[in-house]
Amino acid sequence: MAGRISDQAVYVATGSFLTGIGIHLALFIRGEWHVYSPYIGSYYGLLLGFSLCLHVWYANFMPIFAFFSHIAGIFASIFIYRLIFHRLNRAGLPGPFWARFSKLPHVWKIRDSKNHIYLHNIHVKYGEVVRTGPAEVTIFLPEALEAVGGRQSTCIKGEFYDLLWPELALFAARDKSLHAKRRRDWNAGFSPQAIKIHEKKVLRHVQRPDQQLRIEVASGNVVNVTEFLLWFTFDVMTDFTFSGSLNLLQEDKCRQVVVKARRARSTLGPLTPAPWLLQVGLKLLPRIWWIKDWNDSITWAHDQIQDRLSRKVDDKDLVSYLMEPKTTSREELGRWLKGDSLLAILAGSEPTGQSLAGVFHELARHPDQIRKLRNDLKGISLSDNKALVVVPHLNAVLQEAMRLHANLLTGGVQKTAETGLRFGDGIYIPPHTTVVTPLYTISRREDCFEHAEEFIPERWTSRREMVRNAQAHVPFSLGTYNCFGQELGMRIMRYTVAMVVTHYDFCYAPGHDGSEMELGKSDRFTAFPGKVPLCFTLVSKAEG
C-alpha cells in the first residue's frame, strides 16, 4: 500500500512538474504577459485555495503536492531557460548575475526610488552596455538616445507604458500607428494658432507667483520653491486643459489633489523596472497604500472631464481640440479623453515645475548668473515671448538647468522590434529587449560636457567648446514620442524665470546649501526634486 502511494505521488509530481514546464515553454516565453499578470496571479491563487479545500475535505496531501510541483516546474523552466537559452546570453553582455533571472532584486535595491543613482553605479561598475534584467539592457552611450528614440528607430514604447491598460491615452499608446493617429488630434491643440490662445492664460497665471512672492517677502517667509512651482504649474495646466484653475498658490483647500497625485507616483519609483508587478498592484490592490492615491487621481481627472463636457467655455482649451475628431466614435473618444486628461495635467505641470525648480536651485547657488541674466533682461518686455526667446543667456540658463536636472532620469523605456537594434560601433541588441537610456548619467558624461557636473550656462553661448557631444542633451525626448508641449513649456519657463529674476533677488535660506535638492531627488519615472528653500527680496528700482 505504501509503495502504491509512493508511486502515485511520483506520477502526480512528475506530471504536474512537466505541465509547469510545458506552460512556460508553450505560453509564457511567447509574447507579452505583464498586463495579464493580475489574472494569472488570481488564477493560481484560486487553484491553491481549491487544492487546500480538497486537502481538508479528503485528508489527502496529493492536491497540494500537485499544485506545488506544477509551480516548481514553471520556475525551474524559467531558471534554466534564462540561465542557458535566453537570447541575451548570446550577446555576452556584462551585468549583475541576478539580472539574468529576475527584476525583483532591482526593485528591492531601488525601494527608496533612487533608480538614477543605482543605474549610475551600475555604469561605473560594468561599463557602457549592461544587462540589467532577464530581457533588459541599459545603455549609457549618447548615440543610443537617437538610435533608440529617434524618428528612424524601429523601437516601440516598453511594457511600462501599459500602466493605464485598458484605458486609452496618448502617453500609453505603444502601437506607432495608433500613437500617430491620436498625436494628430493633440497637435491641433499645440498649433501656433492654439498657442496664441493658450498664451493669454499663461500670462495671466504668471502674475500670480509674482503676487504671492510679494506676500512672502513682506512676511519674511522662506519659500520651498519646489512646492511653490508645483502649485503654479498645476494651476496653469488645469486651466489650459479644462478652463478652470484650482488657485493652488493662494488657497490650500484643493492642494490635496496634487499631494495625492504626487504620492501616487511613489508607486512608480520602485516598480517601474517590473511592469508586471505594477499591474498586479494596480489591479489587485486598488485601495491599498499609494495605489489608492493613484486610482483616486484617475477618478479626479475623470470627474474634471465630465464637468468640462457639461459647460461651454469662451476660449478654446485642450479638451476643445481633443473633442474635434470626427473619425472617432463617441464611446472611443470618451475613453481617450479620460486617459488623456490625467496625462495633460501631469505631463505638463510636473516636468515644467521640476525644470523650474532646477533653474532656481542653480541660480540661487550662482548669484553671478542672476545678475548677468537680469542685466540681459533690462528693457525687454517680460510678456513678449519673441523678445525673450532671443535673449541668449536666458535660454542658456534653461538649457543648462535641464541638462543637469533632466525630467526623465531613467524613464522613456523602449523595446526593440523583431529585427533587434544595431547602432554605434557594432553594438547589437536582440529582438524584444527592453532598452533603458538613463539621461541622468548620459548628460553628466565628461566626454560629452567639459566640467559636466558644474552649472555653466555659457557652454551654450560663448563657450561652445565645452559641449563635446550635443547628442547627450535631450531635454524633450526625440522622434515619434517627443514632447508635443515643449513650446508651451518653454514659454512658461521663460516668462516665469524672467519675471522672478527681474523683480527679486534670492538665495538659499540660512542653514541650507542646496544639497537637499539632489539628496532628496527621487526617480518615479519622472524626477521628483528635493526641497529648494529660498529667501526672496525685492530688487530695488535702480537695480531692476
TrEMBL record:
The keyword Transport does not apply. GO terms for cellular component: membrane. Pfam families: p450 (PF00067). The keyword Iron-sulfur does not apply. One of its GO terms (molecular function) is heme binding. Heme binds at C483. It comes from the Eukaryota. Keywords: Heme, Iron, Membrane, Metal-binding, Monooxygenase, Oxidoreductase, Transmembrane, Transmembrane helix. Its main location: membrane. InterPro entries: Cyt_P450, Cyt_P450_E_grp-IV, Cyt_P450_sf, Cytochrome_P450_monoxygenase. Its cofactor is heme. It is found in: Membrane. The chain crosses the membrane at residues 12-29, 41-58, 64-84. Belongs to the cytochrome P450 family. This is Cytochrome P450. It comes from Rhypophila decipiens.
